[in-house]
Design a protein that fits this description.
Radius of gyration: 19 Å
Number of helices: 15
Number of strands: 0
Number of domains: 1
Distance between the termini: 49 Å
Amino acid sequence: MSDARQILGIKGAAGTTNIWKLRLQLMKPITWIPLIWGVMCGAAASGNYQWRLDHVLAAAACMLMSGPLLAGYTQTINDYYDREIDAINEPYRPIPSGAISLFQVRLQIWLLLLLGLGVSYGLDQWAGHSKPVMLILALGGSFVSFIYSAPPLKLKQNGWLGNYALGASYIALPWWAGQALFGQLTWATALLTLAYSMAGLGIAVINDFKSVEGDRALGLESLPVAFGIKKASWISAGMMDVFQLAMVVVLIAIGQHLAAVILVLLILPQLTFQDIWLLRDPLAFDVKYQASAQPFLILGMLVTAIAFGHSPLTQGM
């Protein structure tokens, strides 16, 4: 079990000396899932995705870009700049444990970034874009990842700003990539997904619970540090619930009533798991909460995306 945690990059991982396992641990494969799912949501929202070989391969390439490559880049660069914090919170991580050299980490950062940008350029060519939309999105997302982790800006020093940047990177950006690849990204969908990303802010807060000790020691104002564990757990739950319910209102407004009902039904289990895990003891049950509740959140994203893809109001604006 601890070896699986090590591979996935989950809290409580075992140590290893295998260089490829270390590289994979830096990339935290568990974090790729929402980005891969976001690409699916964007493809569905485009209204143009078809189950044919070239579309399937293009979608797979977009998922590779968003997940293993650019999310892997994001996680690796975050570990690089958080090595002092991890030495306190997670000393078994590859960098603070000394299992991998900083040179090897920097090499991995550059390789993942360049490969991700290369794939984005190839996707623009496949889609026949007159403007390199995919490359622009990849560059923008990579820049946000850099300023999130690296000084002097280091957005994660501010709990609200940093968590929103993380939430938007995991919800809005891959959605935009999937929609731009197979159709046209509209202003309506862009703004709605940015609002949806406020729910992602709530998810990002959960990741801060395990780092409270190190964040406090190094002066990072994460929400659990600023407000305390209990209040931060309520903020996390509230952000996820309120902005998903806001999407229910949007779906009703654009005439997608069935999707609105389904989304409400997917929010209800999340409320239950929040009561069982998140609000009782987020430090002990953060992983259990994410494993139990987040599948319902991402299913709700797909339901919303499909509804957007079938609504002329979101396609034409």
